[in-house]
Amino acid sequence: MQPLPVPEADLDRRPGLVLATLCLASFMATLDLFVVNVALKDIGQDFHGQGLSNLSWVLNGYAIIFGALLIPAGRLADKYGRRNAFVAGLVVFTIASLACALAPDLWALVAFRCLQAVGAAVLTPASLGLVLTALPASKVVGGVRLWAVSAALAGAAGPVVGGLLTDLSWRWIFVINIPLGLAAVIATVTLIPNAVYDRSTRIPDLLGSFLLIVSVGAVSLGLVKGPDWGWADPKVDACWAIAVAAAGGFTVSTHRSTVPVMDFRLFRSRVFSTANIAAALLFGLTGMQLLSVSFFLQNSWHWSAVETGLGIAPGPAMVFLASMAGQKLNARLPVGRVAAGGFLLVALGQALMILSLHQWHSYAGGMLPGWLILGTGLGLAMPTIVESATVDLAPEMSGTGSAINATARQIGAVLATAVTVVILGQSATTGAAAKFYVTWWVIVIGSAVGAIVVLGITPSRRSRPGRSPRINNSPRKAAIS
């Protein structure tokens, strides 16, 4: 069946409000990756002094589910309608946020966070798809950029918002999603047409997604519980065995499926493979920094949640500002060198912070200078790596490649959070500084390794990161259901 064209009246009605709605949803989903770090101490105290090894699942449960479901969720949105998927994702995310706010214990909170991640995984690719289909052609490129900026702003605002809301109660970091989610649902139903691209799209390999979740989750569980159980404990060995078996099952399922979660053929591209390794490493290092600095400020320096959020905020703010400068550098310099320069700045900033804190036990003299340099490095490296992931892929594979890169970023964050838990141990609660310095030296070493890895990003295609994307305006050929 050939799709009917979208009426111009539907595409052009209140494009500003349409874009604001889609950006709000992207902002909400990304914000929830950042606000929780500042609230973890209060959550642990509220739930009878839970340790970091258990609290880490509030972060990791969300990241694992979100990363594993992005690809199948995007394909389901293409099959059943992007507006339908977007509204469904918003509804699930909003209901799960309410459940998180009412959670009676830690493991109920973790379960509801996983449900929240399901909603985020559905609404995120659907929202980007709607930016491409529900805006007039003249506004699509600008809309994509604003959509991406909204996610970056969430990273910058997350620590401050998390700190302010946690000062009232950690439950407010979830309550705030409820009115925003309801407003986004109403605006979507009122303003946005439901463009359907291809009802013949086949259901993706959900078994593969499940096995990926099990494998990453088992590795994370083995790491975070290893110190508590003992590394020779049979339960830890069981985690490794489950992880290996699930990874093997995922590989087999992917090879056999006609619609795999990951198309392994994409990894034949050296640029794509390198960019995914670099993305996992960079987002892992970022997760280590945010988690460790949050606990350091709260438990070593005894700062409040608000003070901690304000103290963390300058780093993510520099990420946002430096990413704009990085766009211009990518148009003039080899992208591998720009990304390598970003990694080196991360290493320099982290090393400066360690050395300065030994000399000056203050925020302004000891932490802030290195934190600003570190944020600048992340801002140069992040967009360069993310944009480079798909430049060597065929246009019809760029969406899948982008989703795989997002999955790699989440897996990197999960594994790095688990490593942070292992290194910090009881110091996360007691505030003993020595283990925090060890964590930060690991970040310095990881950043130096990343600088070497990204030199392999040398796109062969003429299109380069930093240049305006060439958007196919096929949305006008979509159907309204």
Description:
This protein is about 75% helix and about 0% strand. It has a two-stranded antiparallel sheet. The N terminus and C terminus are likely disordered. The longest helix has about 30 residues. By secondary structure, the protein is mainly alpha-helical. The chain contains 19 helices and 2 strands.
Q: In a few lines, what is going on in this structure?
A:
This protein has helices at residues 8-12, 15-31, 35-46, 52-80, 82-101, 106-133, 140-168, 172-175, 177-191, 206-229, 234-256, 270-300, 305-312, 314-330, 335-359, 363-388, 398-424, 427-430, 433-453, and strands spanning 195-196, 479-480.
Adjacency order of strands in the biggest sheet: 1-2
Determine Rg (CA atoms, Å).
Answer: 22 Å
**Tally of contiguous helical segments:** 19
Level of helix content?
Answer: over 70%
| Helix/strand order, N-terminal first | HHHHHHHHHEHHHHHHHHHHE
Shape: globular
Structural class by SSE content: mainly alpha
pLDDT < 50 runs, ≥5 residues: 1-9, 461-481
Strand content: under 5%
Terminal CA distance: 13 Å
Secondary structure: number of strands: 2
Q: Give a short account of the largest sheet.
A: 2 strands, antiparallel
Q: pLDDT average, as an integer? A: 84
